Amino acid sequence: MRLTKLSSVMVAVTALLVTAPAGALAAPKLPKHQGHGGPAGCRLSESVDPHIVNSGDSVVLTGTLNCLGGGGGQTVTVFERIAGVPGGFKNIGTTPTAADGSYSFTPAPVITDSTFYTRAVRARSANHTVRVAPQVTVATSPPLPEGSQLFTGPAHKVTFKGSVNPIDRGAEVVLQRETGGSTEEWGTIQRHDFVKADGSFEIIHTFVVPGDANLRAVVRPHGMFDARGVSNMLTYEISQTQNPNLTLEPSVDPVNFGSPLTLHGVVKAGPGQKVILMARSFGSPSTKIGETTSGAGGAFEFKIANEEKNTSYRVLSGTIGSAILFEGVKWVVDSATVSATKVTSGQEVTFSGVVSPDRVGHFVYLERKNAAGSGYHVVDLGTVSFSNATTGTFTIKYPVIGSGMQQYRIHVPGDPINQATSSTPLILEVTPALSTLKPPLQPKLPD
Questions:
Q1: CA 352, 356, 362 angle in degrees (round to 5)?
Q2: How many angstroms separate the CA atoms of 164 and 166, rounded?
Q3: What is the pLDDT of residue 54?
Q4: What is the DSSP letter of 224?
Q5: Cβ-based neighbours of 36, under 8 Å, separated by 6 or more
Q6: Do residues 237 and 327 make contact, with C-beta atoms less than 8 angstroms apart?
Q7: 396 touches 419 (CB < 8 A)
Q8: Which of 436, 416, 432, 430 is nearest to 368 (CA)?
Q9: What is the per-residue pLDDT across 107-124, written as a single tens digit (0 to 9) for each?
Q10: Distance of alpha carbon 332 from its chain centroid, rounded?
């Protein structure tokens, strides 16, 4: 039965070819492409990068129009649908295709989840959605410099205040503390705080465990956002309150990697008391590293030539022990540079530099200052590579998108081994790509 049907089809096709006009054979009319409404052979691709961004950031649409005879010199129209804005897809601008059919378009910065598609020569691309996270900032109240010391116990509660933009009233905010030693591992240490009507939030927390504290606030997906918002990271040191009978304090806290440190204190019992210094770093047991005798007034000190790791110190004198003193040792960004400071949107630049210590494989973040100017968020990352016994290098290649003055920095995140640090800002001047036309402004989001 199948052979009979195929033979019938071939006879019909042969008859059409015999009776067709000569002109039709020379230039056959192309049938319409099903599902796109354009001529056969035309395909329009589209990609959006990045797929997940912070509110107020830019994305770039790129693609290619492929047609028989080429797709150059055509007009591509871009459509956008913004979550929470009525009216469906709207025309937000056009851009021409290059000689090879490629195109690029930078819409206005996205505020909430947005879906894009493009049209050209009646061909249509697939839809692509950008997931948008709210901008989240957090700080202690009153403000405390990063690296400063906080204390355990109910008498030393710490208040964290922050903001969420755009406002996402009712979204849950959790406070997290980093727990991993080599990779980013975050544990939630407080829940059930929520964004208020004005976009602010407040978290009052009692610390229990002494040691390093890399902290962040995370706003869970809610309302018009289906991506979580992650705040800037705060770095503090958590110690126990002093024992008045035996105190222990650092000369500087925190200290940079490779720098000297002096620990000093007082034995209330007075001079002539034996004092033992104990130390414990991440992954190691508590070990005796020094011994001395108290002098006038019970004072004593220990000198450490080269600090390399976050360390918890404690001194013992007879049956008395001091509180645990946590001393943070910070990463050092020895240098940070960018290959170009004046770039065109879509151009790739290279951020590179040197950091201490030489911990191969540790993350290095490239951060960009957010649109509100209130903090930084991660846009790309690299890792530390081997350089020598003390320092390591990093290289991050990043395609810059958007326009205007943009501020970046290198941030080395902290962990239980070393504390975080950031480079000085790197300023880039970004101009739109020639093939990108400026689209109209996005409509205002409803309250």
A1: 70
A2: 6
A3: 86
A4: T
A5: 42, 43, 44, 122, 123, 124
A6: yes
A7: no
A8: 430
A9: 999 988 999 999 998 899
A10: 20
The pLDDT assigned to 443 comes to 41
Look at the alpha carbons of 128, 134, 135, 138 in this order and tell me if their dihedral is positive or negative: negative
Could you tell me which residues are beta bridge partners of residue 426? 408
User: Which residue, 377, 441, 435, 446, is CA-closest to 406?
Assistant: 377
Residues 6+ apart with CB under 8 A from 444: none
Give pLDDT tens digits for 298-333. 999 999 999 999 999 999 999 999 999 999 899 999
Q: By C-alpha distance, which of 65, 136, 76 is closest to 106?
A: 76
- How far, in Å, CA of 413 to CA of 393, rounded? 15
Instruction: List strand residue ranges (DSSP E) for 240-347, in order.
Output: 249-250, 255-256, 261-266, 274-281, 287-293, 299-304, 311-317, 320-321, 325-327, 329-330, 332-338, 342-344
How many whole angstroms separate alpha carbon 261 and alpha carbon 252?
7
Pairing mode, if any, of strands 52-54 and 128-133?
parallel
CA dihedral in degrees (275, 305, 235, 278; nearest 10)? -20
- Which token pair is 311? 């360390």
Instruction: Assess whether the previous peptide bond of 39 is cis (omega < 30° from 0).
Output: no
How far apart (Å, rounded) are the C-alpha atoms in residues 260 and 442? Answer: 55
* Whether the Cβ atoms of residue 303 and residue 262 lie closer than 8 Å to each other: yes
The predicted model gives 180-189 an average pLDDT of 71
Is 63 in a helix, a strand, or coil?
A: strand
**Cα separation, 344 vs 39, whole angstroms:** 34
Q: Whole-model pTM above 0.70?
A: no
Backbone dihedral angles phi then psi of residue 261, each to the nearest 5 degrees = -145, 140
The DSSP-derived string for 323-362 is: PPEEE-EE-EEEEEEES-SEEETT-EEEEEEEEES--TT-
**Neighbouring residues of 304: CB distance < 8 A, sequence distance ≥ 6:** 260, 261, 262, 263
Following DSSP, what letter does each residue of 142-175 receive, concatenated? Answer: S---TT-EEE-SGGG-EEEEEEEES--TT-EEEE
SS3 (DSSP) at 441: coil
